[in-house]
Amino acid sequence: MDLIDILLSASFWAAAIRIASPLIFATIGELICERAGVLNLGIEGIMVAGAFAGWIAVWGGLPLWGGVAVALLTGMMLGLVHSVFSVPFGLSQHVVGVGLTLLATSLTFYTYRVVLPEVSSPPKITAFQPYEIPLLSDLPLVGPALFSQTPLTYAAFILAGLTALVLYRTPLGLAVRAAGENPQAVAAQGLSVTAIRMGAVVVGSGFMAIGGAFLTLSAFDSFFFDMVNGRGWICIALVVFGAWKPGKAVLGAILFAAFDALQIRLQQTGIGAVVPYQVFLMMPYILSILALVVMSRRAEIPAALMVPFNKGER
Amino acid sequence: MTDTEKAQVVLRLDGITKRFGPVTANEDVSFALNRGEVIALLGENGAGKTTLMNILFGQYTADEGSVELFSQPLPAGNPRAALDAGVGMVHQHFTLAGNLTVWENIVLGVDALSAASLRPANAKARIRQLSERFHLKVDPDAKVGRLTVGERQRVEILKALYRNAKILILDEPTAVLTPQEADALFATLREAIASGLSVIFISHKLHEVMAISDRVLVLRHGRLVAERATQDTNGEELAALMVGAEVSAPSIAPASPGAPLLSMRDVTTPGAGSAPGLARVSLDLRAGQITGLAGVSGNGQAALSDLISGLISPSSGTLELHGASPQGWSPRSAIANGVARIPEDRHKTGTIADFDLTENAILETYATRFSKRGWLDWVGARAFAQKLIEGYDIRCPGPDIRIRLLSGGNMQKLILGRVLEGAPDIILANQPVRGLDIGAVNYVHEQLAKARDRGAAVLLISEDLDEIMRLSDVIHVISEGRLSPEFARGTMRPEDLGRWMAGEGFEKGMTDAA
Question: Would you say residue A282 lies in a domain?
Answer without folding.
Answer: no
